[in-house]
Amino acid sequence: xxxxxxxDSPREVDVLIEAGADEFYGGYLPPFxxxxxxxxxxxxRRSYRExxxxxxxxxxxxxxxxxxxxxxxxxxxxxxxxxxxEDGEILDFARRCVDMGVSGFIVSDPGLLIALREAGVKAEIxxxxxxNAFSSATVKFLERFGVSRVILPRELTLGEIEGLAKKSGRxxxxxxxxxxxxxxxxxxxxxxxxxPNRCWPCEMKYSRSWEGRFDSRLVREAFLALSEWExxxxxxxxxxxxxxxxxxxxxxxxxxxxxxxxxxxxxRAVRMVKKMWELTRGEMDRERCVGMGRSIYAEEFGFPCQxxxxxxxxxxxxxxxx
Length: 322
What we know:
- The chain has twelve helices and eight strands.
- By secondary structure, it is an alpha/beta fold.
- It has two domains: about 1-180 and about 235-320, Copper homeostasis (CutC) domain (TIM Barrel, Alpha-Beta Barrel); about 200-235, no CATH class.
- Strands 1-2-3-4-5-6-7-8 form an eight-stranded parallel beta barrel, surrounded by four helices.
- Helix 10 (about 265-280) packs antiparallel against helix 11 (about 285-300).
- The longest helix has 18 residues, at about 265-280.
C-alpha cells in the first residue's frame, strides 16, 4: 500500500520521504490563470498562497527533487468546473508539466478529463473525490475515459469500499485516512476553502432557523448534525484503524489531506500512517487493529479519538452493538 502525502515545497521532499511518503501531490497556480481569475477562483480549489507552490522556479525544483528520488508527483487540477475557453492554455500547461516530470493530474471537471485524453497528454489521470464514485458503475465509467486511479469519497464505509474494490478492475483505488473529514458530500458542496487560517464554512458556528412544514423530529436531527460539526477541528480527522483492511481489500494508496499545512504537521501525519501500516500489515484481528490505531492517535494528539472525527465510525457503532 502506498502512502500519498501533500507537498508544497522542494524543501519538504526529503523529510517527508524519510517519514514514509511513497508519493506526493500538490498544487501550482500558473500565471495565466491568476492574471485572468485571481486566486479565489482557484484552478485547484486552494486559493491561499501556502497551499500552492509559490513560483515556477520552486515548482521546477520540486519536480526535480521528486525525479531524483524516483517519487511520483501528481498535480491538482481539481476545480469542479473549468471555463471551456481555457482548455487550450490548461492543456499547454499540462503538457509542459509532463515534460518537467509531473506523473499525473488529479481532475474533477469531466470536460478537462476528456480534453486531456483527446489531446494525448501522456500522464496518469486520477479522478478526484468530486466525481462522487459511490458505485462500481461510476468507476467503470471513469475507466472508459482513461482514469487510472479513483480517489474514493470520504463518506464510504469500510464495507462499501471492500465491495467496490472487488469490482474496480484495473482502476486503482485511493482512500483518505487522515485529516479533512467533511460533514458534506464533497462532490455536491459549493463552499470555498479560501481562508488562510484554514477555518472552513462547515466548521463555523451559525444561527439556525427552519422554514417550512417538516416533521419536528427531522428538524431536531438536522440541527443536531449541524451543531456537532460547529467548531470541530477537521485537523483531527482519522481513519488509521481501517488501514490494514483497506490494504486487504486491494486499495492501492492511502491519502493524507493537508495542502498548505506546516511541514512538521505533514511529517507527523506521514509517520502516523507509516507506523500504523508497519504495525498492522497483514493483521486481520479487528479489535487489535482498532486498539493500535487509537493508541497511535492518542499518542500524537494527547486525547482519545471520537466518532465525529472518525472516517470509519462503524468501528464505534460495532462497540456499541448498533
